[in-house]
Specification:
With about 240 residues, this protein is an alpha+beta fold. The protein has a six-stranded antiparallel sheet. Strand 1 and strand 2 form a beta hairpin. The longest helix is centred in the N-terminal third of the chain and has 14 residues. The chain is elongated and about 75 Å long.
């Protein structure tokens, strides 16, 4: 009986560990040197095993960063009532938000126009990361009218949920008035936030949310990792 090539055995072992979630989507695999030491083989053999996994789409390499488990893109609905936690839970994954900053400053031209504010009016800026099962899937940036929602900054520091923060400040419901989707390449900072490579494809969403009276309450920009998220349009918004 012909012997199974060693690289195939190593690839099968790593594939089994991925299947058992010892390495999850987005996790970095051991380096060639570490695999060589673990299995007692040369680096060429370890490299061949990783190449086999990559050929089958189980992993992908990032130049200068290593080899990572490929994530199955999750469907993220863009609809009139987009709610991050609800969207992620619908995929069976655990949602999480990580706050990068909350501050109050004068609005720039685009922010003032989107929120129907005078030029230079104060806005509350909320920047952070959206994660699913601990893996970053989006970098977001939201602006809110500070004079209308004076307590929102403190609330956002207490709860990462925009929906809950708005509710605590008197906005019990809101809907998406408009959305604009474009494609961009990841900047060095975005690549760092999203654990991807500089220049990787991102899906950029620009949106305005309004309250039941039609007043803008949030202007948002979100950059989704293109290899981890598939944006879908909810039936109510399809044309």
């Amino acid at each position: 009986m012909p012997r199974t090539p060693i690289w195939k055995s190593i690839a099968a072992e790593l594939e089994g560990e991925i299947a058992r979630h010892l390495y999850r989507a987005g996790d970095k695999l051991p380096t060639e040197a570490e695999l060589s030491a673990r299995f007692g083989v040369n680096r060429h053999t370890a490299r061949r095993a990783l190449a086999d996994l990559a050929e089958r789409g189980l992993v992908h390499s990032r130049r200068g960063a290593g080899v990572f488990v490929t994530a199955t893109p999750l469907d993220y609905a863009i609809g009139a009532r987009v709610r991050f936690h609800r969207n992620i839970r619908a995929t069976g994954r655990l949602p999480e938000k990580r706050v990068l900053r909350v501050e109050t400053r004068p609005a720039d031209t685009a922010e003032a126009e989107a929120l129907a504010l005078p030029a230079g009016a104060p806005v509350i800026v909320y920047e952070g990361l959206s994660l699913a099962e601990g893996a970053p899937i989006a970098h977001f940036f939201s602006c809110f009218p500070a004079e209308r929602l004076p307590g929102l900054a403190d609330t956002l520091r207490e709860t990462s949920s925009v929906t809950e923060a708005l509710r605590r400040n008197g906005v019990t419901d809101y809907t998406r008035a408009r959305t604009r989707l474009t494609a961009e390449a990841a900047s060095p900072t975005q690549a760092l936030h999203l654990a991807t490579r500089e220049g990787a494809p991102l899906l950029r969403s620009e949106s305005v949310n309004i309250d039941p009276e039609g007043q803008p309450v949030e202007y948002g920009l979100t950059w989704f990792a293109g290899d981890r998220v598939a944006l879908t349009v909810a039936p109510e918004d399809a044309s």
